[in-house]
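To whoever picks this up:

The parser on our side crashed when reading a file containing two proteins. I've narrowed it down to the boundary between the first structure block and the second sequence. Both blocks are reproduced below exactly, byte for byte. First block:
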Amino acid sequence: MSRLLAVPLIALALLLAACGDDDSDNSDDAEPAAESAAPSDESEDDPSDKAGNGGGDQSQPAEKPAKPGTEITVSSSQFGEVIFDGDNQAIYLFDKETDSKPQCYGGCAEAWPPVLTKGEPEATGDANEKLLGTTRRDDGTTQVTYAGQPLYYYAHEEPGQVLCHNVSGFGGLWLVLDANGDALS
């Protein structure tokens, strides 16, 4: 019976958790978050690599096609047209960062995972290719930038949601940005 109560209580706690509610400024105190903390644009399982996919020599690994970098696009939200990734996940900037060097690590990066890429990021729709770039994180991963700003997700949002615009946390504001790279107020 207690197990049946635990699941709804955990779900309720997650729903009540506020965006970036940790206002501590400990972004430099902890080790960088693992790359797995961010939603990934690459899948570990490629159905074409599975055995029994139509015969052929099973002793040689199947070649995987080159995967493009993280896709950045523009979509509608309650705040107007803002940037999202190719999976319709909202993207934010951290106004504490005044250049392309990320300052969000440790607990900050757990709540606000960086938008990472394995290849060159790609602009689609109304996103501006000229504003896309990358920066190297302390752990060696590559983070996407837009208009020179490192980009982040909020860890507790579903695709299409923009729950944490203009939220204070970790010593700064988290803001969505438009296709021109301007933070919305």
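<<boundary where parser fails>>
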Amino acid sequence: MQVHIGLKFENWGLTVTNTPAFTFVPTTIYGLQNLILWARDNNKRVRAAGHRHSWTSLFSEDNEVFVSMLDLKTATNVPDPSSILPDKVSNLANEFKTIQLQTTSQADRKSLVRIGAATTNEELRRWSVRGNAWALALNTIIVEYVLISS
């Protein structure tokens, strides 16, 4: 897991700026679990972001812990050129960049899809196009977007 100390944070709209004590870029579930335990033991608040699109104060605060679900180059490159570049094979080492089709019911043509917290809309779009069958019911045209749930 990469860690950056005292790295300034800015969202894409430049409406939120702060300096977390630590910025972590996890690639394994185990690493993120240990980070959260460490933060709890050190009385630190943990906030996560993907492409940094939010205009609210949802992001980390000064001297707290910020988790970037995307590598910093991808998260801060405006605009992200991934929508016009070929697929990268860099997802193999990141447990948060996964798309897994779960149980399928042929009767009602519905399926469950497990989408990793660092999967971008562009990666999901390409997965859907390759499979020629699946799409996420989400009304957005932003490809620089990451679904983060708690």
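After patching the parser it read the second block fine. The domain at 2-76 is CATH 3.30.43.10 (Uridine Diphospho-n-acetylenolpyruvylglucosamine Reductase; domain 2). Helices lie at 29-41, 72-76, 121-131.
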